[in-house]
Amino acid sequence: MSGFLGNREPWGNNMLCKCFWFDVSRTSLKSYQPEEIWTNDFSAGSTPCSTRAIPDVPVDDVPHEEGLDSPGISSNQKLPGDKILKLISGGNWWKDAHFISNEHAIGVADGVGGWADLGIDSGHYARELMSHSVSAIEEEPKGSIDPARVLEKAYFSTKARGSSTACIIALTNQGIHAVNLGDSGFIIVRDGCVVFQSPVQQHDFNFTYQLENGNASDLPSSGQVFTFPIVTGDVIVAGTDGLFDNLYKNEVASVVVQATRAGLRPQVAAQKIAALARQRAQDRRGQTPFSAAAQEAGYRYYGGKLDDITVVVSYVTVASP
Fold first, then answer.
1. Which of 6, 28, 97, 210 satisfies CB 3.0 to 4.6 Å to 109 for a cystine?
2. What does the pLDDT look like over 259-289, one tens digit per residue?
3. CA–CA gap between residue 252 and residue 55 (Å, rounded)
4. Domain 55-318 sits in which CATH superfamily?
């Protein structure tokens, strides 16, 4: 069984929160070191970030733009009404893993950073998991990709040490079909509004569900499965917790609206979203989804959460005849 250990240490007139999540049968853990906890006075009247104006974020310093020779990597799928839709996708990432498959799917995974304390590359497991996911997708029937089955196959094929969250999204005959395990996830933006957001799976505050090579792992069957109808013009934004811990869904939607109105390619939209999330992560005083969750869990915490950030943006469009 998993356990939660919360240790609050005095620091001046405040309490310094140091938390460890542990399992007597597993080596994976997430921890906060003292220098990572930012404390300041709590203001109950703070304005949620979702109501802020979104700045135009430069992307010159954003690494890893995914180069595409065409307007994007696309996947075609025929949906009810005889419309053939396609996903035009692009991604931006820092250390986390992702894939964009021309077989109608995208995915993101976030390696659990605590493995680095044991000398293990925390991203190795996530990258291998995503690689095996692509292989499993290639074995799926066209138009009937089952993300849960894909994740299960990838899980049993992944032998690297480590652990990871996972989110896989496919375009199927029923619309968007997805599986999400942990605190990665996705939103669907339609006409500037978020019409769907996948919920977070956690055993406790900041102790996410995670896949691991071994008997102590959460199982792929623990992931939540979603089917959601889509229409042309929808935008799917998938990301790791580095995105959704630092930006409210309406902030992400605002960047999507700006990007689509400006005719920007999806990977540029992903860059702008990632850059804004990085900016929020470095803010020690603003209110973020993570700080709100920390306060709800009883911790005095303000500002963003420094973390790896991966974003994949997919535009849903009509394929050419």
1. 97
2. 999 999 999 999 999 999 999 999 999 999 9
3. 12
4. PPM-type phosphatase domain (3.60.40.10)
